[in-house]
Amino acid sequence: AWTFSVTSWRTKIRKRMNEAETKGGALVVDSLMNYETVKHFGAERVESQKYEAQLLQYEHGLQKTAASLGLLNFGQQAIFTTGMTAMLFLCAQGVMDGSMSIGDLVMANTLLLQLTQPLNWLGTMYSESRRSLIDLTELLTILERSEE
Predict the structure, then answer these.
(1) Could you give the 3-state DSSP secondary structure of residue 101?
(2) How many angstroms separate the Cα of 36 from the Cα of each of 14, 21, 32, 49?
(3) CA pair distance 114, 119, nearest whole angstrom
């Protein structure tokens, strides 16, 4: 549940980043296509400020993406560590009661540690797939535009 909710939030951030990048690219193309007009009216500073504003929005999105990835990883590790601690506590209690051996405790610990890598990999693949689908959707939107 944690991974899905944070990834959905990160998806919204990625969409805003793509939008800022597209607007920035459009500003550059417009400025270059209308170079003589921009130069004639001395609007270089205005065009530069518009582009810089778009770059700042994109940079802000990059920072939020990095921070949200850190939050996602922290949350996943906190959940796993809490579960691992509870499991080890219960196993230790079983060893003290005599219902479990030390080998059972080691086996339970090893089993959970071996589960983490595939789960981390699946989480990474899910996040990257979502990000790639957002980028692909943006590309298809651009390709479907009518020629002007």
Answers:
(1) coil
(2) 35, 24, 9, 18
(3) 9
Q: For residues 8 and 1, give the distance between their C-alpha atoms in angstroms, rounded to a whole number.
A: 11
pTM value > 0.90: no
**CA-based nearest residue to 127, from 119, 116, 115:** 119
DSSP string for residues in 10-53:
HHHHHHHHHHHHHHHHHHHHHHHHTHHHHHHTT-HHHHHHHHHH
Concatenated DSSP letters for 82-136? HHHHHHHHHHHHHHHHTSS-HHHHHHHHHHHHHHHHHHHHHHHHHHHHHHHHHHH
Q: Which of 147, 138, 148, 145 is nearest to 20 (CA)?
A: 138
Query: What tokens does 30 get?
Result: 């417009």
Q: Which parts of the chain sit beneath pLDDT 70?
A: 147-148
Which residue in the block uniquely carries the two structure tokens 């999105």? 61
Give pLDDT tens digits for 107-126. Answer: 999 988 888 888 878 878 88
